[in-house]
Amino acid sequence: MEMDSNETQPTVVVSSPARRISLRQMTLSDVDHYMVWATDAEVARFCSWEPCTSREEAIKYITDSVLTHPWLRAICLEDDRPIGYILIMPVDNIRKEIGYVLARKYWGKGFATEAVRLVTAEIFKEMPEIERVEALVDVDNVGSQRVLEKVGFTREGVMRNYIIMKGSVRDMVMFSFLPSDPFK
Ligand SMILES: CC(C)(COP(=O)(O)OP(=O)(O)OC[C@H]1O[C@@H](n2cnc3c(N)ncnc32)[C@H](O)[C@@H]1OP(=O)(O)O)[C@@H](O)C(=O)NCCC(=O)NCCS
């Protein structure tokens, strides 16, 4: 199997102003780094996916869902090593949803905040038709809510009984960022 083929998207690398992280397309050769966070039940706790249980499963997921994703970037350290990813999901023509995941070892160092700030700024330039980037966060996922608040997202309110996550009905907090909103 070709381990680093990703011919559907051009390689784009964007660095944060602090240059602590950069964003780039993921490739199959990132599989071992991907497994660091994807196999971790604590990372998966508030995510729709179940922890990955084998390298084969990881390769299939990257092939089927990462390489074909319309907008997903690996969050990389200075040495180009992925420590997580950040993605933009289409909602409709003017709304997109942002999501992100980081390996547990790197939590609490401001990396997610840096990545969300970078992507939110970039996406309005890249897709001028977007009027709103939104994020839906589980009410108990306090760290993720804090990330969005630190970037400058507006907490709009709690959507009660909004989704079923892993068999349980969950309240979700709706956050948004508009093109005219200031970054914090
Ligand atoms: C959510 C996640 C991306 C945050 O990444 P991170 O790099 O640790 O985030 P940052 O360091 O930029 O900021 C985290 C903030 O939340 C705070 N925080 C984290 N957990 C917290 C908790 N349980 N209670 C209160 N604050 C908390 C941190 O103190 C920090 O705030 P501060 O800078 O004011 O001190 C990471 O925890 C993760 O990957 N979680 C699993 C996947 C996930 O939940 N993704 C989001 C789905 S919506």
UniProtKB/TrEMBL annotation:
Origin superkingdom: Eukaryota
Gene3D superfamilies the UniProt entry points to: 3.40.630.30
Annotated coiled-coil segments of the chain: none
A Pfam family hit: Acetyltransf_3
Organism: Brassica rapa subsp. trilocularis
Domain N-acetyltransferase: 21-179
UniProt-recorded name of the protein: N-acetyltransferase domain-containing protein
